[in-house]
Amino acid sequence: MSEPTGALGGDGSPPDVPSAADADSAATATDSEGTYVFGIVAADHPCQLDELTGVGAEPEPVRRVVAEPVAAVVGAAPPRLRAKRRDLAAHHRVLTALAEQGTVLPMRFGVVAPDDDALREQLREAADRYLSALREIAGAAEYNVKLLTDEDAVVRRVADTDPAVLRERGAGDTGYEGRVRLGQAVATAVEAALRADADRLVTTLTPLARRTAPAPPTAGAAVNASFLVTDEQLEPFQGAVHELAHELRTDGEVRCTGPLPPYSFVPDEGGEP
Q1: CATH number of 141-265
Q2: Are 158 and 188 within 8 A, CB to CB?
């Protein structure tokens, strides 16, 4: 499968909701640039795709490509696909709808197969790998947690509590070297305080999740991490997040986003074919 330049999952449905079989029979756009892949599911995933549309300026209905025992949820890939906000939102919307119905192995934005036949062949060849990856994330969702720091507040705190800072302040040296020593002491104390806050957050939440994954660094965040949380773990996990938010409120804001499709927990061997 390829990615575009700039790119960063039955029967028995209610009568008014198209079944997966209905979606499978939908026509593929003749002017598309391939088959856009949202995610991979087990073939028995409900895949209620009613009203879901894909990416592009004129998005078409989402459908399935089946290769028992797995299937891919796909749409038409528009020409010159780019990571526009509209299309990123559509990608996430489809995966969120699938995750609400069952386990889905999410593809990152921009995964495109040459056509349905090529995709179907790839699914057959890697079926066991995909089923194993689906089992790893079954019954869980991703929650992203950030600790957004208020560095000015941390500076004020360490200025009144850190021994090294208090020692330099007490020395009363207002000359250049004294100011440098004080500045270095404050910087060291702030770094240590933020590291302690980050370690506390991660150490508290890690035992309450199935898996943990670091997320890309974010400006102004001492922590940006994702947690794979099962249904059984959700209540204690959320309780711990709320407690941390209260305890760390003087240093910043604890922000939790989820549930999300498990983007950060697709096993290496379970990525796109």
Answers
A1: 3.30.70
A2: no
- Name the one residue in this structure whose structure tokens are 């994330």: 137
Are residues 13 and 23 in contact, defined by beta-carbon separation less than 8 angstroms? Answer: no
Counting Cα atoms < 13 Å in the Cβ hemisphere of 70 gives 26
By C-alpha distance, which of 46, 47, 232, 261 is closest to 141?
A: 261
Q: Does a cis peptide bond (omega within 30 degrees of 0) precede residue 267?
A: no
pLDDT digits (tens, 9 = 90+) for 171-219: 877 788 878 888 888 899 888 989 999 999 999 999 999 999 998 888 8
Peptide bond into 273 cis (omega under 30): no
Residue 226 near residue 264, CB atoms below 8 Å: yes
Cβ atoms within 10 Å, residue 122:
20
Residue ranges, CATH 3.30.70, the chain:
141-265
Phi/psi of residue 68, nearest 5 degrees = -40, 135
Its pTM surpasses 0.85: no
Q: pLDDT grade, residue 158 (50/70/90)?
A: confident
Question: What tokens were used for 66?
Answer: 């089946």
